[in-house]
TrEMBL record, chain A:
Full protein name: Uncharacterized protein
Keywords attached to this entry: Membrane, Transmembrane, Transmembrane helix
Organism: Brevibacterium jeotgali
Ranges that cross the membrane: 111-132, 152-170, 223-247, 259-280, 292-313, 319-342
Organism superkingdom: Bacteria
Keyword Transmembrane helix: yes
Automatic annotation (TrEMBL), chain B:
Domain of life: Bacteria
SUPFAM superfamilies per UniProt: Winged helix' DNA-binding domain
Descriptive protein name: Transcriptional regulator, PadR family
Domain Transcription regulator PadR N-terminal: 24-91
Organism per entry: Brevibacterium jeotgali
TM ranges: none
Length: 361, 114
């Protein structure tokens, strides 16, 4: 049977990176041996004093050796318990970060989540809703909601996990600071540490951006908007094979290719107008009343335009429209207005926050 | 955030203050070659409280940073790793000591003022 010490060393070493293991094994073993020796000396000194009193009564050699090994076992337990939880000791030895995402990346991580999660939810709701209405013979609104929501929640969790894992990897891929591995490098590294603070460029007020507070997020939000506008512009070209319903119209597009040119051009013009607003925000890094109002009006016009298109035209590919038990107007129009209203509210809120930040600066 | 195992603010701040001083104490004591346990003894005698499970990993980190050099001595019955202060470590120890003395003077002055 392995000794307690062996088991303790193993418990520490298995928790540290592989490259460190031989060194940590030697270190921990030496530490335990030193501590045990010191403690043993203390115990021996104490028992020696006691033994001198009892030596006259009986002095069997076997009894003495039994007492020695019992004392050694006690010392071993006491030393290991003094060292405490092997996981904590391993953490002290380990150079890797003990957190998933550190303060350096946490703001970006949180910002990205606030973008990715709602988008993943909407995309999943739309595509699952679409797949349900197109593939279910007797589609009804309850089934549509149940299926779309039930299948979209895992997508949000997967998106959350993917972003988290990505940031955890970035956190670990970043250099952990200066470390030396050879004795020759020791002096150089010592110098580096010593001069580290001095060599770092000193921050001055000249480094301050001219952008008012919130500028970075205005720009980042606008870039994300631009990406989505491009994706939205591609919607008329999305083939049915994209959501496994290609058999319904031989892999043609979801949108009716025979829809009048006016509707396609109108759609792209409205998207282009919104894109102009986004580019303006990327360049100027701030929000102002005119462009924000224009953006909101364009969104409203787009919602009206799409509603009219759905009510008066065969927007969906005819083969899909006939396959669908639920008319497109029933789910698409409420969805369009829900997204539009959400967008209007969030635009107004973002603008008010931006104005408040500007007035503070 | 206060860790669950030290809800007492005093314990937490004492730990913070001591953590900063242990490095300087180690560097100072390692002007003479020391192995882990002898260093623990030296520090304890000097009144510097540090646990073995903190000290050994710290010595390894200081070695990696080039402030100490480590060498296994196999002449003794049991191999022991001896740590010695490097030139770079000595310079850092000097700087840290200067800072420590300045802090002590500042705190003494501050304490008198109020």
């Amino acid at each position: 049977m392995r000794t307690l010490t062996d088991r303790y060393v193993h418990a520490v070493v298995r928790r540290v990176p592989e490259a460190m293991r031989p060194e940590v094994t030697a270190d921990v073993t030496a530490m335990i041996a030193d501590m045990a020796e010191a403690r043993h000396d203390e115990v021996a000194a104490a028992t020696e004093a006691a033994a001198e009193v009892e030596v006259a009564t009986d002095g069997g050699a076997d009894a003495a050796s039994d007492a020695d090994s019992a004392a050694a076992a006690e010392v071993e337990v006491a030393v290991l318990e003094e060292l405490g939880d092997p996981a904590v000791l391993a953490r002290e030895y380990s150079d890797s970060p003990q957190h998933l995402i550190g303060p350096q990346y946490f703001p970006v991580y949180r910002w990205l989540l606030t973008w990715v999660l709602p988008v993943a939810l909407v995309v999943a709701l739309v595509s699952n809703g679409l797949a349900y209405t197109l593939t279910t013979a007797d589609a009804h609104i309850g089934g549509l909601l149940g299926t779309a929501i039930g299948k979209s929640v895992p997508v949000v969790f997967i998106a959350f996990a993917a972003v988290t894992i990505l940031f955890a990897i970035i956190e670990r891929a970043t250099p952990m600071g200066t470390q030396a591995s050879s004795g020759d490098a020791a002096d150089r590294v010592g110098e580096t540490l010593r001069a580290g603070a001095a060599r770092r460029p000193r921050w001055t007020v000249a480094d301050l951006d001219e952008v008012p507070p919130g500028g970075t997020s205005v720009r980042a939000d606008a870039i994300v908007s631009l990406v989505f506008l491009v994706l939205l512009a591609l919607v008329p070209f999305v083939p049915t094979t994209a959501v496994y319903v290609g058999h319904l119209n031989d892999g043609e597009t979801f949108i009716n290719p025979d829809l009048g040119v006016f509707w396609f051009v109108g759609y792209w013009v409205l998207l282009a107008l919104t894109a102009v607003g986004a580019v303006w925000r990327i360049r100027r890094r701030r929000l102002s009343t005119g462009p924000v109002a224009l953006d909101m009006i364009t969104d409203l016009v787009m919602a009206v335009f799409l509603t009219v298109a759905i009510l008066t035209q065969d927007v969906l590919h005819p083969a899909i429209a006939t396959a669908s038990a639920l008319p497109v107007a029933v789910w698409a129009i409420p969805l369009i207005w829900a997204i539009t209203i959400w967008d209007q509210v969030s635009t107004v809120r973002a603008y008010r926050t931006h104005l408040a930040a500007q007035s503070r600066s | 955030m206060v860790p669950a195992d030290s809800p007492d603010p005093l314990a937490l701040h004492l730990q913070e203050v001591r953590r900063g001083t242990v490095v300087l104490a180690c560097l100072t004591a390692c002007r003479e070659p020391q192995y882990g346990y002898s260093l623990l003894d030296t520090l304890a005698e000097a009144g510097v409280q540090v646990e073995a499970n903190t000290l050994y990993p710290l010595l390894r980190r200081l070695d990696k940073q080039g402030l100490l050099t480590a060498e296994w001595n196999t002449d003794e019955p049991r191999p022991r790793k001896y740590y010695t202060l490097t030139d770079a470590g000595a310079r850092i120890a000097d700087d840290l000591r200067t800072e420590w003395l300045a802090l002590t003077a500042s705190l003494t002055a501050l304490w008198k003022d109020i």
